[in-house]
């Protein structure tokens, strides 16, 4: 398992389940939709170190967990089939 820690203090765990990249945010002091649950990434992370870079995480929609950070609810015109998160810079990458 690969662990990535970001500048904001967020911690992500990343694994490949066969051909499917999976990620989960394990951050008890901050709460976002889907935290602690494995989410399928639609694009895998780079195999090289991500230290110093932001991650762009594109996953299947997290709408079933409720509203997003902007108040968009499932079924809203702005809602889509994917959720995209952009992290702060990665400070540690366990590779």
Structural description of this entry:
- This protein is mainly beta.
- The chain has one domain.
- Helices cover 0% and strands 36% of the residues.
- The strands form 2 sheets. The protein has a 5-stranded antiparallel beta sheet, with no helix packed on it. A two-stranded antiparallel sheet has the order 5-6.
- A hairpin with a 4-residue loop joins strand 1 and strand 2 (11-17).
- The termini are close together.
- The mean pLDDT is 85.
Would you list the SSEs in sequence order as H and E?
EEEEEEE
Largest sheet at a glance?
5 strands, antiparallel
- The gyration radius over C-alpha positions equals 13 Å
Q: What number of structural domains do the residues give?
A: 1
Subunit organisation of the chains: single chain
Q: Can you count the helices? A: 0
- Beta-strand percent range: 35-45%
Key terms for this structure?
95 residues, mainly beta, 5-stranded antiparallel sheet, 7 strands
Summary of the model, kept short:
The chain is mainly beta and 95 residues long. Helix content is 0%, strand content 36%. It has one domain.
What's the structural blueprint in terms of helices and strands?
Blueprint: E1 2-6, E2 11-17, E3 20-25, E4 39-40, E5 56-60, E6 82-86, E7 90-93
Antiparallel strand pairs: 1-2, 1-7, 2-3, 3-4, 5-6
């Amino acid at each position: 398992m690969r662990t990535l820690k970001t500048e904001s203090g967020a911690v992500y765990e990343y694994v490949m389940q066969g051909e499917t990249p999976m990620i989960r945010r394990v951050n008890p002091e901050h709460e976002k939709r889907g935290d602690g649950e494995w989410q399928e990434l639609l694009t895998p992370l780079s195999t090289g170190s991500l230290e110093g870079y932001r991650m762009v995480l594109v996953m299947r929609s997290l709408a079933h967990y409720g509203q997003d950070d902007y108040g968009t609810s499932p079924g809203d015109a702005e809602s889509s089939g994917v959720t995209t998160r952009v992290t702060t810079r990665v400070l540690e990458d366990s590779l």
